[in-house]
Model the fold of this input.
Amino acid sequence: MKIEISEFVEGARQAKGLTVIIDVFRAFSVECYAFDAGAARIIATGEPGEAFELKRRYVKAILVGEREERKIKGFDYGNSPTEIIRADFTGKTVIHTTTAGTSGLVSAINADQLLAGSFVNASATAGYIAASRPERVTLVAMGYRATEPAEEDLLCAEYIESLINGRHGNFEARISGLRNTSGKRFFKSENIDFSPPTDFFLCTMINRFSFVLKAERRLDGNIDIGRTDI
Done:
């Protein structure tokens, strides 16, 4: 099994084989919490305008997403697991758009299989890959706003690769240490209304969920995401 790690939208566009799009802070952590809150499915899209168009087709759907880290005007929820963990999405369709994560999914046009990953479902994701035994795996760290390397996404890719290969390093300390590096923005008082400290802790709860996020491209170019328990 050949495993490659790439970054950003271009990395997603060029990814081949079984591809995992990684966005720890916060897109795919949010999607795991949304399924845990009872969501029936998630439709991921790259642009807010497309999300509103989907809402016109799925009138009872819930809009979740961000731009500049803040909830988009007219949306029901921001891209915050702190908000989602208090919600009841039982049986609902969630329409989700973010600057980095969902854009990566939409851009992964050459992937044979497509998953979405973060720390909260990393072990399940690695287990699914190991059981599938694909010839090629691409782990795409989407980065901060899909333009700057993000330590948490690269670390998550490294962690998933380690699990696939049966190695168990001391990742817990490194993940906790993100509080002082890429995760320190969650502890700034000016961000508390849209990126509270609880988001950091909810996004770094390693292997909280034992399911994978499997993504399928729709005819309209958007992405259907379903929960597959491992």
Residues 151-164 form the longest helix (14 residues).
